[in-house]
Amino acid sequence: MTGETLTVLALTVTAAAFVQGSSGLGFALIVAPVAGILDPGLLPVFVLASMVPLNLYVAWRERASLDLRGAGWITAARLAATPAGLALLWVIPDRRLGLYVGLATVLAAVVSLAAPAFTPGRAAYVGAGAVTGLTETATGVGGPPLALVYQHRPPAELRSTVAACFLVGEVASLALLFATGRGDTADLGLALALVPAIGVGAWLSRLVHHRIDARRMRLFVLVFALVSGVVLMAGV
């Protein structure tokens, strides 16, 4: 990997960590399209591994607001759907993965923007968990379904619950990917090398997360997702 590529990735994960630490979502939506453009082979292991320390930090920082009931249903459904997400990797050729990441990103952003307000229940939790298990394992992008469920809840609840669900799911997905030979230790090494960049973004989010307008930040993330997803699809 060239120094220029590493610099782009470092700046991207710093910005993404700040966005997710502030609003509760956005890391994968920002990082996955950029990583896919630079090197499709980075998906999904690099994205999943990079999110582990960030979500551990956010879940601990706002643990008092965690929705345990929702997190339980989401995690159960997410773990159940993880093998199906792995199956997608066997079906989709590596050279086409970027196209599907872009398409999934655009569709998820459009759905999240268009969804009306509602109070989530067990069906919503299970549905979001299942879709996240499919998309996050296959592409590293799993935030939009969870954001959709919690978009009308208090920002601290969204951030902490989404982070906790992500954390469990990411570890499960990584374990399954490596157990079945779909993981690359080089991607783990790259994610480890960029932990300082992630830490900078997380620290900056700590300064503003309690003051930032989460809805505006969410809108920014989704618009960015639309643009980056289109760029990724056009580059395939």
UniProtKB/TrEMBL annotation:
Coiled-coil portions: none
InterPro entries: TM_pro_TauE-like, TSUP
Pfam families: TauE
UniProt subcellular location: Cell membrane
Residue intervals passing through the bilayer: 42-60, 72-92, 98-118, 161-180, 186-205, 217-235
Record key words, sorted: Cell membrane, Membrane, Transmembrane, Transmembrane helix, Transport
Membrane topology: Multi-pass membrane protein
Major site of localization recorded for this protein: membrane
Repeat is among the record's keywords: no
Signal sequence, renumbered to the chain: none
Top-rank taxon, per record: Bacteria
Family of the protein in this entry: Belongs to the 4-toluene sulfonate uptake permease (TSUP) (TC 2.A.102) family.
Protein name, UniProt field: Probable membrane transporter protein
